[in-house]
Amino acid sequence: MAQSRNLNENSEGHVVIVEDEVESKKVMSLALAKKGYHVEAFGNGADAIKYIQNEANDIDLVITDLRMPGVDGLTVLKETKQVNPDLSVLLVTGFASVENAVEAMKLGAEDYLTKPIDLFEFRARVSKLINHKTLKGEVDLLHKRLDKRFGFEQIVGKSQQMERLFEMVRTVANTNANVLIMGESGTGKELIANAIHQNSPKKDQRFLPINCAAIPPDILESELFGHERGSFTGAITRKIGKFELANNGTIFLDEIGDMSLDLQVKLLRVLENREFMRVGGSEMIRINSRFVFATNKNLEAAIKDGSFREDLYYRINVVNLKIPPLRERREDLADLVAHFVAEFSKTHQKQGVDVTPDLMQTLTQYAWPGNVRELRNLVENLMIFAKDGCPLTRDQLPAHVFSRTDKNRRITIPFGTTMAELEKEAIYQTLEAVSGNKTRAAEVLQVGLRTLQRKLKDYESGTDSGEDTDGD
After folding, report:
1. Same domain, 211 and 236
2. Rounded to an integer, what distance in angstroms lies between the CA atom of residue 80 and that of residue 108?
3. Cα(235)–Cα(245) distance, rounded to whole angstroms?
4. Alpha-carbon distance 52 to 58, whole Å?
5. Last residue of some domain: 284, 301, 324?
6. pTM of this prediction exceeds 0.70
7. Which pLDDT score, from 0 to 100, does residue 2 have?
């Protein structure tokens, strides 16, 4: 028969006690109940197992005597672990059965106590096991949130360029190779670095980003390597550097192209030997960290002008990941806008907000010099002033979206090229940019889908009519 009390939100934990000795079962139950635990106590293993099988997800700890008539504690342990391997089990045994208890721990029991039980020690062991389970649950939840926050879910893109990038990230994440991420400002380099870390064997260790351009050169060395007390004016205490703090984890050095030449030499030594000394120190510190680098600069040009070391470039550029600018993957715009609208609907508590086709068309034609970061900021601005149930329209866009053109998209046309040849090339280039999606290509070219299909058919057969009519 189970002895129980109502479980309320203030309970410290849900504990199952399995003990055939009536007085011992009563003493343990009262000792835990007084501390706020919800207790279910059973006098035999068979009834306890049935209860555990039905309530395993809500139980925090099982306490069982090892020696009992009928179904013994070892069977309770095995059945509990079969139902829920993460459910902790505390064994209670007499001195004569300590060896059996140790053997049971090898089968999955977390701890054991010997009789007669010291209630103070009993409550301390119970508290420790339940707190450990609670902490593990919180850590698991944090990992799930991190997986979502820094996994591929937050990197929106279905274009061929992004799919290739995702595949490369998945592959390189499982290695310890140095990675150089290249891309314009605002393309999401740190997000890619986070995804590499979060999908790697080091995901349980620290991810430490450092922006080399944001820290003055005379301070960056101390930030990276740390320093000893008295090593320079103002060094009144020892400082542990970022490299040491992130040992065994992932170190992300952003804007590596802005690092001074002196510091580049010291970084090269770290990458070659996996060791360094604090500023003013004499002891070598070894690390086992993974390095990821990023830049928006042309490092090969920097090598030619002498601002970046060639040997360091080849050391960091083991795997090169290039993030395309937003203007080169415009087919991702609709998904990105929908993603940001959903995000800021929650942030700013807006409901029923969508975007109109004319707004999307305008966004598609814009140059996006600030890339995804600029798009995100623009959508947030629109969502702040949006009204529930009202769509975002073209009229709400700032003036610069209409006036700014992409100067880099200037087309050089060979002399003598006909309009029909220009149209044909425009169609093929647009199809390539949208991964062969004819419906999307027709939208970008602002022609009917049937017109586009007819022209493609004519190109294939060599009988292009050259007509401009839509025909839809």
Report:
1. yes
2. 10
3. 18
4. 9
5. 324
6. no
7. 45
